[in-house]
Write a structure and sequence with these properties.
four-stranded mixed beta sheet, binds adenosine-5'-diphosphate, Alpha-Beta Plaits, four-stranded antiparallel beta sheet, binds 4-diphosphocytidyl-2-C-methyl-D-erythritol 2-phosphate
């Protein structure tokens, strides 16, 4: 079975409080971004994980695809499997690429071995692998709360919107990024702000990580500025960075920009 785990963008992100479990509460809208890895799974004589594409730091035994398999194997009698992951989405980018691999692995194993697990059960397994993981089970725009793993529906359709994502090559660890942010109440009501025309979002939809990280990594503010100069209606850091994206409604494709050749860029339609 071959699946294509996609990335995500955060539209607004407020870190609202410290939790007793050491994590932070947040409020953010997650939307799927069709920048994808490729993950193949085949029943095999013995367990094997092979990797190509962007190198993934850390022991392959800790790879999130593998951890997804181990998690289900603890509860079900799964046969051995050969997984091959071709990594395309940059790591430490705030695009949730590792979380997507884990969630797509859970979904693929459910189908391949006919486990008949409901979406909600798969979401519960995903929550155990990472705060972002559960979003990728249903993979639809949502307003996320708590650790980023409790969702409310949101009426937001960005399908077909031209988007450019720029990854400046900085690997910003999620824990490091959270450590730089002091929790505070949300600056705006995200649901209400996102219901207004996109041109107003610049003033009313913000990401708490952006303020904390831009003073340390000046390239983040430069990329955002460049996206606005190229005509973006809205631009922002995604998640805890370091990818910065711009949205260009009304265009058939995002514009080319002088820095396209300098950084890793994803161009396309949401
Ligand atoms: C910041 C966000 C926003 O969407 O995305 P990314 O920038 O990573 O894509 C997420 O909250 C990232 O979720 P995820 O990448 O799954 O994080 P996890 O593996 O669960 O946690 C990594 C570390 O981040 C911190 N963490 C994470 C989530 C959260 N709600 N509070 C936290 O304090 C903790 O220090 C934790 O040890
Ligand atoms: N399949 C995977 N893809 C990417 N990162 C993975 C994977 N498995 C484990 N990891 C680990 O997860 C961390 C980054 O996860 P990722 O979701 O790509 O980050 P971010 O959401 O911050 O961009 C890294 O420390 C990496 O070593």
């Amino acid at each position: 079975m071959l699946v294509f785990p996609n990335a995500k963008l955060n539209l607004g992100l407020y870190v609202t409080g410290q939790r007793p479990d050491g994590f932070r509460n947040l409020e953010s809208v997650f939307v799927p971004l069709p920048w994808c890895d490729a993950l193949e799974m085949l029943p095999a004589a013995e367990n094997q994980l092979t990797l190509t594409g962007i190198p993934i730091p850390g022991d392959p035994a800790t790879n999130l695809c593998w951890r997804a398999y181990e998690l289900l194997k603890a509860d079900f009698n799964l046969p051995p499997i050969h997984m091959h992951l071709h990594k395309v989405v940059p790591i430490g980018a705030g695009l949730g690429g590792g979380s997507a691999d884990a969630a797509f692995a859970l979904r693929a194993l459910n189908e391949l071995f006919d486990l008949q697990l409901a979406m909600e059960t798969l979401e519960n397994y995903a929550r155990r692998l990472g705060s972002d993981c559960a979003f990728f089970i249903k993979n639809k725009p949502v307003l996320a709360h708590e650790k980023g793993d409790v969702f409310q529906p949101i009426d937001l359709n960005l399908t077909g919107t031209a988007c450019k994502v720029i990854y400046p090559g900085l690997h910003i660890g999620t824990a490091e990024a959270y450590a730089r942010v002091v929790p505070r109440p949300p600056r705006h009501n995200l649901r209400q702000s996102l219901a207004q025309p996109m041109e107003t979002w610049r003033e009313t939809v913000s990401n708490d990580f952006e303020e904390a990280l831009s003073s340390v990594y000046s390239v983040l503010a430069e990329l955002k500025q460049a996206l606005y100069a190229a005509g973006a209606a809205y631009a922002s850091l995604s998640g805890s960075g370091s990818a910065v994206y711009g949205l260009f409604p009304g265009r058939e494709l995002p514009p080319t920009m002088p820095l396209d050749g300098k950084y890793l860029v994803w161009d396309g339609l949401l």
